[in-house]
Amino acid sequence: MPWSNASSVPAREECVSAQFDTPHAPADYERAREGFLPAARFFRSKLLLVQDILASYPGGDLLDAGCGPGIMVRTLLKSRPDDFRITALDQSLLMVDYCAARTRGTGKIYPAVGRLEAMPFADTSFDITLVMGALEYTDARAAIQELSRVTRAGGLVIVTMLNPFSPYRLAEWFLCWPLIRALGAIEKCFGVSVERRHGVCASGIHALPRSILGRLMRQAGLQPADVVYSTLRQPCRRSTSSLEWRAEHSGFLTSGP
Questions:
Q1: Is 39 helix (H, G, I), strand (E, B) or coil?
Q2: Residue 138: exposure state from Cβ atoms within 10 A (0-12, 13-18, ≥19)
Q3: What are the CA-CA distances from residue 65 to residues 35, 88, 90, 102, 156 (Å)?
């Protein structure tokens, strides 16, 4: 759900950590993206979208920033095993360790722990930087500045962002989740045990409209090459936009092809 009050930032960071920095989080995250539930289909659509964008690029040094359990990393190692030298970055050591363990024997990756807002890499380190489903959990302005900084001249930046104005997300954030929390409050009044109550934890998500995201990208010296919308088949579930940006020199980006 979107956050706007600066005083809520510490609480937001705690929410993100509670979701992704627990012992079972990497495996749970991976399982949630398997099968045919909406979240899994949505995630696979993003995988295919990113693979399509990368299809016209011969390879190079690639950063998967916010790699999670490494699903995208393994996808690239399987589909294009000799094309990319992949660095997998996440702020969760557990996620990075899980990613490294799951890719052992399938190809060489370079694991790294760090925040997107302050990445532990030198300037112009990568030909391609990819952020898929992680920018929503960061200080987007700082993270985008970092993406521009670590991308080489002529390089490529790919980000995906939830569409906060899609009917699907609006219904989830402002109807479904509040109703579930209200049900949990009622259950508490009737003495239902904590383990059996309904509830939804705060997600820490701050999804930006395309106009604001685009402005932040341009302020970081990036120029759009393409904007693609991904859907979950149903028109009402248009829930993510993927933005492709091409770098020129010193982090400034040229117009797209």
A1: helix
A2: buried
A3: 25, 6, 6, 17, 13
Please work out, in degrees rounded to the nearest 5, the angle formed at the alpha carbon of residue 234 by the alpha carbons of 232 and 235. Answer: 105
Q: What is the pLDDT of residues 175-227, one digit of tens each?
A: 877 788 888 888 888 888 877 887 666 667 788 888 888 889 889 988 877 77
Please give the model's pTM, rounded to 2 decimal places: 0.76
Helical (H) or strand (E) element with 227: strand 223-230
pLDDT above 70: residue 23: yes
Cα separation, 56 vs 226, in Å, equals 14
Alpha-carbon 21 to chain mean position: 15
**What residue type is assigned to position 216 of the chain?**
L
From 72, 62, 61, select the one nearest 29 (Cα to Cα).
72
Helix (H, G, I), strand (E, B) or coil at 129: strand
How far lies 194's CA from each of 19, 114, 187, 190, in Å? 19, 34, 9, 11
The encoded tokens of residue 162 equal 């939830």
Superfamily in which the 6-163+206-246 domain is placed by CATH = Vaccinia Virus protein VP39 (3.40.50.150)
Q: Which amino acid is at 256?
A: G
Q: Which residues contact 256 (CB under 8 A, 6 or more apart)?
A: 223, 224, 225, 226, 244, 245, 246
- Summarize pLDDT for 38-86 with one digit per residue, the tens: 667 777 777 888 888 888 888 999 999 999 999 999 999 999 988 999 9
Gyration radius (Cα) of the chain, Å: 19
Domain layout of the chain by residue ranges: 6-163+206-246
